[in-house]
Amino acid sequence: MSGVRDLARVPRLPQLFLWSMLGRLNVSLLPVGLSLMLVRWNGSYGIVGVVGGALTLGQAVAGPLRGRAADRGSTRRLLVITGIAYAIGLAVIVTLVATLPAGGWPVVVAVAVVTGLTAVPVSQISRATWPRVVGPELTRTLYTAEATASEVITTTGPLLAALIIGVAGPAWAVLVTALVALLSALLFAAALGRAGLGAERLPSRTESAAQRSLLTERRFVQVVVISMLVMAAIFTVNLSVVAWTQNIGRPALSGVLIAGWTGGSLAGGIAVSTFARRVPRAPRVAGLTIGMAVLAVLLPPVVTTSPIGVIAVVLFLGGTAIAPTLAANFEEVAESAPRERRAEAFGWLATASTGGAASSLPLAGVLIDRSGPAAAVAAGAALVLVALVLTLLSPRPQVPQNDRVEGANA
User: How far is CA 124 from each of CA 13, 29, 158, 363, rounded to the nearest angstrom?
Assistant: First the structure.
C-alpha cells in the first residue's frame, strides 16, 4: 500500500491516470453493442464478424504508425484528432445501419476500416509516458496499478453496454461509446498539457536505431505473434457468448457473461501478481487453453442446453488465465524496446492484438452460422494451443531482475 500512497503524491499523476483509464472504456464498451446492432440489422453473425474484423484491422494497421507519431511529435494533438475522427466514424456506422438495407453491409465494412484507422491510442501513449512521470523507482508500481485498473475497465464496459442496451437498444450503446472515446481523448490530452507533457519530441539514440524496424528483433517478434494468437482466441469467445445469449432469447445477458470472463482475468491478474509472480508463461497459456476447451464442450451443438450458471462459472475460471498471459507479453515489450521507441513498440503490440481479433472474427462468425458457438470457441482453443507450442519453443531470455517490470498486463 505504501507504493500506492507514493503514486498518489506524484503531482498530476492521479488526473493523468484517471483519464487514461477512461480512455480505455470505449474499447470494452463497443463489442457487445456493435455485435447486437449488426446482427439485428443483417441477421448474419458472419457479417458481424466481417464488420468487427474490418474495424480491428484498421486499428491494427494504424497501431505502429500512431505509436511512432506519439514518439516523434505532439501526443496531445494526436489524441484530439483521433478522438474526433473515431467518434465521427462510429456515428456514421450507426447512421448507415439505421438507413441502409441489410444488403448494404459492404459500405459499413468500408467505414469500419476507416474508423479503425482513427482509434484513439490512449494506452500506447500512457504506457510510454509513465516512466517519465514517476521515474524508475515507482515505474513498476505504476504499471501494476495500471494493469489492475485496466481489468476493472474491461469488466465494467460490457456491464455498462448491457445496461444501455436494456434501456435504449444497441445503437445507443455504440453512440455512447463514441461519446466516451471523444471526451476521454480530450480530457487526457488536457491532463497531459497541464502536466507539461505531450508536446515534445523524444530524442532517439542514433539515426540507424531510429530507422531500424523493431520487427528485426527475434524476441520482439515472438511476443507479437503469441499476442496475436491469444487475442484472436479471446475474441472468438466474446462473439460466441453474444451468439449463445441471442439464441436463448437473453441478449442483454451477454454483457454480464463477458464481464464475468474479464472479471476472471482481473482475479487471475491479482492472484498471480500477489502470490506467483515468477510463474512462467507456458502454464499461463496452458490454463487459457484448458478453459476454452471446457467452454467449447458446454455450448451448442455439443450440448444443446447448458445452465447459465455453469457457463458463467466456466467463463470466470477460464478468464483467470487471460491477464497473467497478457502480463508476460506486456513485460517483454517493455523490456525489449528502446525507451524512445516505447510507444511504437506498444503500437506493434496493439497491432498484434487487434490483428488477431480482425483475423478471427470473420472465421468465428462463419463457424457460428454453420455449426454453432462451440465450433468457434474450439477454433479459439486451437489458436491458444499454437501459442502454447510457440511459447515452449521460444528461448527464455535472461533479464536482470531489477530491470523487469512486474505485474503489468495489457
Answer: 17, 19, 22, 28
More confident site: 31 or 209: 31
CA distances from 347 to 39, 66, 67, 229 (A): 31, 7, 5, 17
Name the grid cell of 360.
478471427
Cβ 198 vs Cβ 75: under 8 Å: yes
Distance CA 273, CA 265 (A): 12
pLDDT digits (tens, 9 = 90+) for 110-161: 999 999 999 988 888 887 787 778 876 776 667 767 777 787 887 788 889 8
Task: Determine contact, residues 78/117, Cβ cutoff 8 Å.
Answer: no
What are the residue ranges of helices labelled H in 303-405?
Answer: 308-319, 322-336, 342-371, 373-393
What confidence tens digit (pLDDT) does each residue in 201-226 have?
A: 544 444 444 557 777 777 788 888 88
Looking at domain 7-199+213-395, does it have CATH number 1.20.1250.20?
yes
pLDDT digit string, tens, across residues 369-381: 889 999 999 999 9
Question: What is the pTM for the complete model shown?
Answer: 0.70
Give kind and range of the element (H or E) at residue 298.
Answer: none
From the list 54, 1, 27, 52, the residue with the least C-alpha distance to 185 is 27
Helices and strands (DSSP H and E) totals, the chain: 16, 0
Q: Tell me the three state secondary structure of residue 246.
A: helix
**Residues 90, 181 contacting (CB under 8 angstroms):** yes
Question: Rounded to the nearest 5 degrees, what angle is found at the Cα of 382, between the Cα atoms of 156 and 297?
Answer: 75
**345-368: burial string, b at 16+ Cβ within 10 Å, e else:** bbbbbbbbbbbbbbbbbbbbbbbb
pLDDT digits (tens, 9 = 90+) for 340-393: 777 788 888 877 877 777 778 788 988 998 899 999 999 999 999 999 998 888
